Amino acid sequence: MFNILVVEDQKNMRESLVIAFKRAGYNVDSVENGEKAAELQKGHFYDLAIVDLKMEAMDGLETLTRIKHVNPSTEVIVMTAFGTIDSAIQAMRKGAYDYVTKPFQLSDILSVVERALEKKRLSDKVNILQKEVRGKYKFEGVIGNSPVMMRLLNILVELTNSESTVLITGESGTGKELVARAIHNNSRRSDKPFVVVNCGALPENLQESELFGHVMGSFTGAVKDKKGIFLEAQGGTLFLDEIGETSFSTQVKLLRFLQNGEIRRVGDNKPIYLDIRIIVATNKDLDEATKNGSFRKDLFYRLNVIRIHLPPLRERKEDISLLINHFVNMYSNKLKKKPLEIAGDTMALLLNYTWPGNVRELENVIERAVTLTKGGQISVADLALQSEPPGDTMNIMIETGGIRAALAQEERKTIIESLRRHAGNRKQAASNLGISTTTLWRKMKEYHIVSKTNYNTENI
Question: Can you list the domains of the chain with their CATH numbers?
Fold first, then answer.
């Protein structure tokens, strides 16, 4: 049975919600303000919290942040009057599942609650499976329960019995080396070397010598034989990061190894046969590089056996709170500090930042904050985030103060699109939107949406 917490300062509304939820079969607790909600949650687990946005002392946004900090898996639905819908959207950007506008029918909020708890049930199932996977395999540092991260974990599991070459793509800081290490740690080579090479850090004229080795006298400065990085990785895994930075001559030698398993040291005609698994990574578009001639097509085809793409952190924001808690705990332990809390406005800033440097930037910011904070709580002053311009139209509207009109326009578009998709059938459109037909009728009246047989964007 699901546990629900109602946070509402109006007694009649609070009691009505408690009665409705109990009749629906839920366990329900209720409090009249955010402070009590934050305190109560420390000793209780709630699957869902219903929070009023307009409350004295601690408002709904702060309450939401506190709830999510204590237990990120708690789903939150916010209640608001239509005049404060901009705050509701801010709440959703901070992790709320959905919002309902007052006044509402109990059937409306019960419908939203059912959907939120169904999402919670599926998320819990995913988390259980994820723990089972992590318990069986070594995926340290690969953190997240977003759909894209779950797909990644599934791929990593499938690769445990594979020897295929892997190409990992993604922006800088997304964790490509962590994924490569996870592949190695769960392979038959886990007790053999895992050698990392940043190809972009090797001068072009020394790449062949550093990677494949050389014999004494093969070029000026070669005063003795050099073994080379490939030989160091014998039996294990060689991770070539920034593979797009390799020279053409290096690419030719790498292609030969992938085809025949052999290398030749610079200045040596004798082949050396090695047993090495190759994993490469790049933040470049190798497809484009092959088209413009900066990367060999035949090598690309050899490398592109299994491709794993790591999305930027801004595209999996549901993982940010998990990463924040992970890094706070990790660096608190490393620095022998008591577990630190994160202030509500600090968490809101971290969750809404676009993280151009991805996970690496997030880790660096948290490490700095944990190191410098003198109290038991990380504040905004402890962060060192780069200032950034608004990233999208919604952000621009927030900055310019026109969000209410923008949100109303977006809501109106969504309703018209649903009506268009269902040929004007209000019942089907309302079901698709997750609201009652009464609420749909009220919204149509509010936004002056006229009943027509064909809804299109020109009606907006």
Answer: 3-124 (3.40.50.2300), 139-311 (3.40.50.300), 314-382 (1.10.8.60), 393-459 (1.10.10.60)
